[in-house]
From TrEMBL:
It comes from Lobosporangium transversale. Gene3D superfamilies: Ribonuclease Inhibitor, Tetratricopeptide repeat domain. Pfam families: F-box (PF00646). Keywords: TPR repeat. This is F-box domain-containing protein. SUPFAM superfamilies: F-box domain, RNI-like, TPR-like. It comes from the Eukaryota. Residues 1-25, 42-61 are annotated as: Disordered.
Length: 652
């Protein structure tokens, strides 16, 4: 029996394969053999002169121990947290089987426990060199590098391992999972919420538009919690497509009537707005053309008590909110100061009457293109609303008589802005009562029917006498405008005299599409100039020639910032030279459809005014060469500042 055991031991000594015992019987048998053999006595009692930092010398072939025994003893030592002893056993086993991947992995684990990370990394690299398609080497190398805080190289090893290794094994899945975790950790390191003080983050978020701030809510839960905690960010809910309020309105558009956004936004629903109002009760609701909102939206706002602080409401062209919902909403939102309901089909006379009765702090009201009549102002007309400063009203479906306009004036005596461009008055005589608005600064009308020149001038004279400091006047496409109109407007007001005019106050004048205005009327501006005129619009006045436009520019150009004179075939480079010479503050020039303007005039204007020019429109000007346009754009430093588009029928 002893000779048989010795032969089996010699045969086992040359075997490289090993496996972890599945039961305690195999382990006990091996330990018994080791204890009865003299050559195994040294394994149970390692050399005390060998330190944990030194690697034992390789045994001679005569004293070599089977690999399985060394592995079992190394694992037992590792399980007992005797990592130095485990390292000795595994090193001796690797001297017999230097390319065994499991031995290399086990020794690297022992090195890690002893905090000898360089040795662990060397074994991991050996595993990758011998077995490049096995995930174990990449896992061990990545783990060691992460312990060294070298996340960048660890990520590289994980990435290379994912590319080289065969899919399907548990080790490969672990490789993918760890690589994903490291990528997320790197993102968290770059997260400004983790790196910057909260005060600085609040300043950064305050410079974002509302839509950009809403997108930030979806980054992470931490971002959502922090943004939701800053109540001031949600006092204004603006989901319109308008430009950011941080982008200031151009100076040349200062006195022009507003052009609100009318782009339909079908992504805005009841649920969307209610989610945004959960952080705090908003003061401003700018909803734009949200046509998917219905009457339940107002009911939900009232139910969740989100209307008590509301001061501004803008809801345009909505067809799904009806009269009943509006009347219910007014009873809860009593602090509204600005109301924009342009084109809402549910706004009727009843809705307007109730709003004027309940909303006593109302300052701005836009009910243009709604289903209203003059009766909405005639009822309770003897109860004035002195707080109202801006009114935009009118509809093409019904006409307003003189009685309705007089009731409007009596109801809102302190109006500063009156926009009736969409109103159909019964002749210009119906607007005579506007002269009672002594505080009026801005008056915008369009396409007013008139019985003749005398009626128009009579009404305009009443306006001049009753409104002493008008700044903006738009009478576009009014057939009653003539040369006498210019004389009435340009007269200087003299105390104690019958002469009244707006020559010292008018900043914006729009008399476009006036068929009876001639050069003689503009010549009058040479004698009585409008010294403070900022914007002048004289588009498509059929009887005006270049001479009259030049006289107007020469007399009123000192403060002129915006000039529009499109649709004149007689306009040439002479007008461009006059603008360059007499308009030092010019920012916008609109000369579309000018038949005789050339590139020389364009370059003269650009060279004289330079970077102060914000926009030059020369659309459909056939005599302007493309080379001059490109040179002007280069001088101004922007391609959008010079507009030069052509209809197909135009040629150079």
């Amino acid at each position: 029996m002893d000779s048989y055991n010795r032969k089996a031991a010699v045969k086992q000594q040359h075997s490289l394969s090993y496996a972890k015992s599945s039961n305690g019987t195999r382990v006990a048998t091996d330990l018994c053999r080791a204890s009865t053999s003299k050559q195994y006595s040294s394994l149970l009692k390692p050399d005390r002169t060998t330190t944990s930092s030194s690697v034992p010398a390789v045994e001679s072939p005569k004293d070599q121990v089977p690999v399985n025994e060394l592995v079992q003893l190394g694992r037992q030592a590792f399980a007992q947290k005797n990592f130095a002893t485990a390292l000795q056993y595994l090193t001796r086993a690797l001297a017999i089987a230097p390319k065994d991947i499991n031995l290399l992995d086990s020794r690297a684990a022992s090195y890690e426990k002893l905090n000898r990370l360089d040795g662990a990394l060397a074994d991991a690299k050996s595993m990758i060199r011998y077995y490049p398609q096995n995930p174990k080497g990449y896992l061990r190398a990545g783990k060691t590098l992460r312990l060294q805080q070298n996340f960048k190289n660890a990520t590289k090893y994980y990435t290379v391992g994912i590319e080289r290794c065969v899919k399907g094994s548990k080790e490969y899945e672990a490789l993918v999972r760890i690589a994903t975790e490291i990528a997320k950790r790197e993102l968290r390191i770059l997260d400004p919420m983790e790196r910057l003080p909260l005060e600085l983050i609040a300043i950064i978020f305050s410079h974002l538009t509302f839509v950009e701030r809403v997108r930030c809510l979806t980054v992470s839960k931490k971002w959502e919690e922090y943004l939701g905690s800053i109540k001031k960010f949600w006092l204004t809910i603006d989901v319109t497509n308008q430009a950011s309020l941080l982008l200031l309105k151009p100076h040349y558009a200062k006195y022009a009537p507003p052009q609100p956004d009318q782009e339909t936004n079908n992504k805005i629903t009841n649920k969307t707005i209610l989610r945004l109002t959960k952080y705090t009760a908003p003061k401003v609701l700018q909803l734009g053309c949200a046509q998917q909102l219905n009457g339940a939206f107002f009911k939900d706002l009232i139910f969740y008590r989100r209307v008590s602080a509301l001061e501004v409401l803008s809801l345009r062209e909505n067809p799904k909110i009806y009269e009943q919902e509006f009347t219910l909403f007014w009873k809860s939102a009593l602090n509204i100061r600005s109301l924009d309901l342009y084109g809402c089909r549910g706004v009727t006379d009843k809705v307007v009457i109730l709003a004027l009765e309940l909303l006593l702090q109302l300052e701005e009201l836009n009910i243009s293109e709604c289903r209203i009549t003059e009766a909405s102002f005639m009822i309770n007309s003897m109860t004035p609303m002195p707080s109202m400063k801006k009114l935009i009203v009118g509809t093409w479906e019904s006409q307003f008589a003189k009685e309705g306009i007089d009731a409007l004036v009596a109801r809102f005596p302190n109006l500063i802005t009156l926009d009736i461009r969409t109103m159909r008055p019964r002749g210009i005589e119906a607007l005579e009562g506007i002269s009672g608005l002594r505080h009026l600064k801005h008056l915008y009308t369009e396409s007013i029917e008139t019985s003749g020149e005398h009626a128009t001038n009579a009404v305009l004279h009443r306006w001049v006498v009753g409104i002493p400091e008008l700044e903006s006047l738009q009478m576009n496409a009014c057939k009653g405008i003539s040369d006498t109109t210019i004389q009435i407007i340009a007269n200087a007001s003299e105390p104690g005299s019958d002469r009244h005019g707006w020559s010292n106050s008018l900043r914006m004048l729009d008399l476009s599409s006036s068929p009876y205005l001639t050069c003689a009327g503009l010549e009058h501006l040479h004698q009585h100039p409008l010294h403070k005129l900022h914007t002048l619009l004289l588009n498509k006045c059929g009887r005006v020639s270049e001479y009259g436009l030049r006289r107007a520019v020469k007399s009123c150009g000192a403060e002129l910032s915006r000039l529009e004179c499109s649709g004149y075939s007689s306009v040439s480079d002479k007008l461009m030279v006059e603008i360059a010479q007499y308009c030092p503050k010019i920012e916008m020039v609109h000369l579309a459809n000018s038949g005789m303007v050339t590139g020389i005039g364009l370059l003269t204007l650009v060279h004289a005014r330079g970077q102060s020019l914000e926009r030059i429109c020369l659309d459909d000007c056939p005599a302007v060469g493309i080379d001059a346009v490109e040179l002007a754009r280069e001088m101004l430093g922007s391609t959008v500042r010079v507009s030069h588009r052509f209809h197909r029928s135009h040629r150079y």
